[in-house]
Please model this.
Amino acid sequence: MQQLDFIVMAVFAVFQMVVGLAFSRTGKDSKSFFAAGEAAPWWISGLSLFMSFLSAGTFVVWGSIAYNLGFVAITIQLSMCIGGLVTAWFIAAKWKNTQVMTAAEYIGRRLGVRVQQFFTYLLTIVTLFITGGVLYPVGKLVYVATPFSLETCIIVLGLMVILYTAMGGLWAVLVTDVLQFVILLSAVLILVPLAFDQVEGPGAFVEKVPVDFFQVFNGEYTLEFTLAFVMYHIVYIGGSWAFVQRFTSVRTPQESKKVAFLFAGLYAVSPFLWMLPPMIYRALNPSLSGLESEGAYMLMAQRVLPVGLVGLMLAAMVSATASTANTLLNMLAAVFTNDVYKKLLRPAASDASLVKVGRSMTVVFGLIAIGIALLVPHIGGLVNLVLSIGAISGGSLLLPVVWTLFSKRQNATSILTVALISLAVGLFFKLVSPALFSFSLSRAAEMMVGVGVPALLLAVFEWLIFGKKISDPAYDTFQRWADERQLANEAAAAEVNTGTNTQNTFALRAISISFILTGLSIAGLGINSGENIVLIAGIGSVLVLVGGWIGWSARTTSVAARQSTAVDEKEPFL
Model:
């Protein structure tokens, strides 16, 4: 990397932080800080959901698999599209209809405080490991491309994410996610054509890679593994507490569905785009081994991108990781503040104090995640961490809760029993069985056990034990509360809309300015890119046009909102 690359990285990092910090004024009450006023535009929440799922881990974990095994990395990621579609059809609207702000609140009201505490504490631990697993790969990418140590990269990047997430809350997360999506998409759209040019075209690329490189299933990533992964992602996308916030932060159940459909649509296309660079790099340099293959993506970028655009690519990786990390940290802070601090420690806490606690806990959780990220190289690498945590905790902790969205019969005892048994089985096969019996499950079997065991146990409770039971009394109590909450929300809609319209307009203006400045920066970098000027400057120009259109839309929305407010204020006198 050259000096201009470092300047580009620094500029985009500072710009992203400024955008996030600008939303500190919108996070002055708990509903805005933790749920974006429950009226965020669906397309912003959808892009945020997509970016929250995406991270540098996509380019390190799946990029490593793409380099070593080829097309199967795309196959694996298409399972996320299927998970998004199932969530859109069946799950997303269910979450919005619960009338809750967080998944933890739903568990408390539907299953009781005891069950809520169990899931809260366990999922907090799991999420901290996932967040650490998110921070590690971006540190690895920056480390590969710069003279800084891996530890320094992880710590500095983690502190940046903590800062603007703690100040701006969910609105900062949503808007910076959109900005990060734009930066990442622009960088990859530039990288892919240049990578093909380096390998002398698609035909030469196909000839230079192994003969099994384009198999749909390859290595340990078999058909069985993929089917289990599809089941896991239905549960994960539909039940992850961080993603639930995307479904509950929009206005209506129909918009919740749109959030999931947008996610699915993006994941139907993006894997083909994301995975090409490391696959092409295999044709250029087949000698990477072990954990070296985790850096294939960045090595490809360094090989083909002109000066300045390597920094843009790295900024895009940082952005993708920041998106996932800030989502997880905001969710953890929301859960602790609303469902532990307020419920158990200070029930009478004011909105202002809740926001302060939320910001403080964002910092605390962020620092713990940084510590975990520093340990990743010592626990078998990122692939092992991500897939193992997902297999053990995904089905056991998420599926039972998602199941209750459809079942009137399940109760606190059945859900706790299923979760505990499923966790015990997963941990046994991951930790005990290999040590005592020298037997460990394959990737496919690990995923199948992780999802299959809780599904089987829930089915047993549903039809064999609760077969004659009409509904759990706690379900009836929760449903009455949800109906009353819905009526109260509808009655207060006019007052809510005034505040949320202002927030939405501010968000659209911030996105518009971000698009325009990003586009101008990319176009400016393209001026010195020689024969690639048309490609790079063209992408930058498109961003400027899109930013202008969003700004115009924000102005139109603002005018319409003011006119509507004026009419509402005059109406009593008519």
In short: The CA atoms of residues 228 and 448 lie 5 Å apart. The chain has 22 helices and no strands.
